[in-house]
Amino acid sequence: MSSPSRSDAISASPPASTLGVTALTAAAPVSWGTTYLVTTEFLPPGHPLVSTVIRALPAGLILLAFSRVLPHGAWWWRSLLLGTLNIGAFNALLFVAAYRLPGGIAATLTTIQPLFVAALAFLLLGERPTRRRFGWSLAGMVGVGLMVLRGRLSFDPLGLMAGIAAAAVMAGGIVLTKRWGRPEGVGAVAIAGWQLTAGGLVLIPLALASEGLPPALDGRAVGGYAWLCVVGALLSYPIWFNGIGKLPVVAISFLPLLSPVVATALGLLFLDETLTAAQNAGLVLALAAVAAAQLPPGTVRDLLRISRTRQGDRA
What pTM value is reported for the model? Predict the structure, then answer.
């Protein structure tokens, strides 16, 4: 039996260019994983909607000024809808969940997002859900659950609904962004600026009516908001929308699983938390689900076949 060619091994792995885009895109959910720690440790309590506006609107206006491109035609209402889903509704619901639930529960709820993406991708993109996608989605949920659900749990009904809704609206934003793409000649910076601005503006009336202005901010709160605005929005969303335009929707849908991994790591570093054996296993499983989702179907099977063939040749 002839040994597999070098081209066989190369074809079983994603192209280096795709891996580079994936690694860069993953930086966005990694930065979002800091939201739980920053919200609970730095921000004034009771202002999730105001926090969303402060995070999104300044970043959106800066990106608009930098790109100097405004929507046109159908992209006015598309930007409003996508901004509401991807920015306004998602971040507001995320903050509500982070305020009302332990970070572990809030993070675990958002891991159902790949299942929402699979359903919407079938309805809007014609992509049939596969057993592989469903299996790794469940594996990612189990992994994150093992990793972050520990100790005595507190289940706030409003927080639970907010976490699930956050996963749903983010899934809708991802699939619609993939379906519509972006206008010719318009880059990810402009798209991010449109959506961050729209999401922030949509929330202003609701935030002021329901929460009012936050109390006087101390240095910790100013630093927390600056981090969420600059790193969690201004830098991360252009990267994220660039990745959505270049990567398969199923691969994108798994990258947010990195957020709870980062949240757990920050708990270890700054809150003196420790990991049990089950939590370590969950960490490995969650990362395996993210990695497996980036590989083309059949890649693992092909790599195992190549490995067995090489072992047989050596024998």
Answer: 0.77
